Amino acid sequence: MIAPAETPRLRRHLSTSAWLLVLTLVLLGFGFVASRPATPPFHGPPTGGALQAERAIDALTHPGPEPTALSLLPADFTRVTGVTPGAAAAPDGTVRAVHVDGGCSTPWGDDNTKWDYGVACKAHDLGYDLLRYADKVGQPLPPSVRASLDSRLSTDMHAMCHIEPAGSPRTCQLVASVFTAGLNVNSWHQRWGPPVGDPIGPMLAGVAVIGCLLVFRLRGWLHTRRTRPARPLVTTTAPGPASPWVTLGVAGLVLLILGESVLALARWAGADEAWLWPFTWLAQLAPVFFFAGGRANAAGWRHIRESGGGYRQYVAHRASWLLRPALVFVVVALVVPLALELLGIPQGTNAAIVGIALHPLWLLAVYLLTVAATPFMLALHRRAATVTTAGLLALVVLTALGSGWFGSDLLRSASALGLALLAQQIAFGRLPTRHRALLVSGAVAALAGLVALTTVGGADPNLLGTPGASPALAAPTLPLLLLGAAQLCVLGLFARPLARAAELRWLGAPVRFALRAPMSLYLGFLAAMLLVVALVYLPPDPAAALNWLTGPKTLMALGLLAVPALIVFWWFERHFDGYVPLHDSRPTGWRAHAATALGTGYATIGLFGFALTRFGGDTGGTVLGLPLDPIQNLIQLLLGVFLLHAVRTGVSAATSTWVVTALACVPPLLEVASGYGPGPLTVAVYGPTALFAVGTAAGNLISAKTVAQTT
């Protein structure tokens, strides 16, 4: 008798399970770190009621036979906090001032345990009430005060294991250690500031939506990776050189990043600023980057038109290439501050390093706007090239002057965008390479104007990392305008040698690798930069310096960047050749129009939001009126990536596309409903988007049902 064949079991790819596990852990870690509040401002030594609160906390952390802290409480403590304190005898013989209704808070409720940590926890709760009091009267106490309260509670819990071990002293010590770890993690999450309630609901909803957007995006990437035909082991022809304009753009961006980093290290090492400004003129290559990007954008638009595509396909295709490396800055914004915190780098240096690390994100955000504007600016160039260029020049000058007169950040940003568009507009034409005398005269005149502006005109000669300048350019706009004019004249003079250099294979290889693996390269560069910064703050003693370099905190700080670099390269960029092919589909219909507009808008807001928020560095600010929040900014960025990818792959009309879009609008609306953040503009942006997405999805379902009933 033949046994019936067994149905084969369906097995999920091990890599898929690994992806789900890694994605879950990363999302939980991201949500925990991203929900940290801003660092409490320092208002100087406390006075009045805040000073009394600090003295009462000091008494709580040094208990004795009397509840001394009760007599030191501010007179208006109960009125401000609503807490009526009391006294309780502790098992160690001391008498503590306590929050009578307090207890040992755990995720499952108050649990004083069988070793009776209750009195110590209630005293700790009263200390937290005093921290909240100081915050409410406008003088939050320094982090060391909360740390002293946590240390006192940890000491008391461990002491109970000797006073009342309840037959299990080792278990008591373990539980006390677990409680201490939870206490320290919670205090670290709140930056050792006043204990506050966290918006758990909106945070969890945001993390869930981020996971949904990532799963939808990575699902297509995994499918493409698994179905891609195997590469031949031996290639018959060597790869050709990269495009001259791509080579110029990559070289300009790399030299700009390296130059800014080296100059920052020189400043931290104590170099005189009077000797550094000439090097900023050499390293500031933002105009060259936007000029080369303009040539690449024009070539991309012509290629799309020749292949039968239109604006929607062009934006979706170019943005897919741009936003791929943009996601790495989520990792940068997340782990760089953590790594610097582990290394104990001073706060001022910390902020400067994060600003340098996120500078390419500003350039990328502005460049995305120039990409979207390319077809329209090209049309203006064909019809009125001189008038358009003159108009952009006037826009740059007027907005730069206006930003100085009125102190407007909006005008400062507008001048930066205008300069990027001006460099791109010049790239649409041809530099007068045959008129060398004209180019030499232009370069000399631009440099003379720059010297006059920075000497007689009083402008800052530092053109990289200038305080108060537009973050996208890291320099004042008017001096950079003159420097850019000189740079473009020099490019015209050396156009032929530069074109020949771009054809060299030894130069093309690193350019192609930079296009292939920009994310892992940048993370590796930041890890190296972090190590150099750490060397600046090494202890003078060689033995202590070696111990510090090989210590767990230092290794963990470097691993926060090195490990993601390896993961990104191995899972993403190892199989990527730096070229995003055109998709066969042609996005058509009003849904594709809507997806293109929404995707570009949300991606741009997400990029600028991430550049501004810095994970708690500027919490409370806004970008275009929308609140700065890492979770919401990541949702905006991922939603933009998702919609533009849907347009590129021809699924912008799918019901699932608009269901996911509607879900992405839930967390910010839930945050407004919970009372966090500004509401009117958030509702005005996300409300119509959600209604449009729901209406589109419902329309698709109704149409499908009607077709099914009529067939």
SSE blueprint and pairings:
Layout: H1 14-34, H2 48-60, H3 68-72, H4 77-81, E1 85-89, E2 95-99, E3 105-106, E4 109-110, H5 118-136, H6 143-163, H7 169-189, H8 200-227, H9 244-268, H10 273-283, H11 286-306, H12 311-326, H13 328-343, H14 347-406, H15 409-428, H16 436-455, H17 477-493, H18 495-502, H19 505-516, H20 518-536, H21 542-549, H22 552-573, H23 589-613, E5 622-623, E6 626-627, H24 630-649, H25 655-664, H26 666-673, H27 680-710
Antiparallel strand pairs: 1-2, 3-4, 5-6
Helix pairs in contact: 1-8, 2-5, 2-6, 5-6, 6-7, 8-24, 8-26, 9-10, 9-11, 9-14, 9-19, 11-12, 11-14, 11-15, 11-17, 12-14, 12-23, 12-24, 13-14, 13-20, 13-22, 14-15, 14-23, 16-17, 20-22, 23-24, 25-27, 26-27
Q: How would you describe this structure to a colleague?
A:
It comes from Amycolatopsis acididurans. Keywords: Membrane, Transmembrane, Transmembrane helix. InterPro entries: PLipase_A2_dom_sf. The radius of gyration is 30 Å and the shape is globular. The strands form 3 sheets. A two-stranded antiparallel ribbon has the order 1-2. The two termini are 47 Å apart. The protein has 711 residues and is an all-alpha fold. It is built from 27 helices and 6 strands. It has helices at 14-34, 48-60, 68-72, 77-81, 118-136, 143-163, 169-189, 200-227, 244-268, 273-283, 286-306, 311-326, 328-343, 347-406, 409-428, 436-455, 477-493, 495-502, 505-516, 518-536, 542-549, 552-573, 589-613, 630-649, 655-664, 666-673, 680-710, and strands spanning 85-89, 95-99, 105-106, 109-110, 622-623, 626-627. The protein is 71% helix and 3% strand.
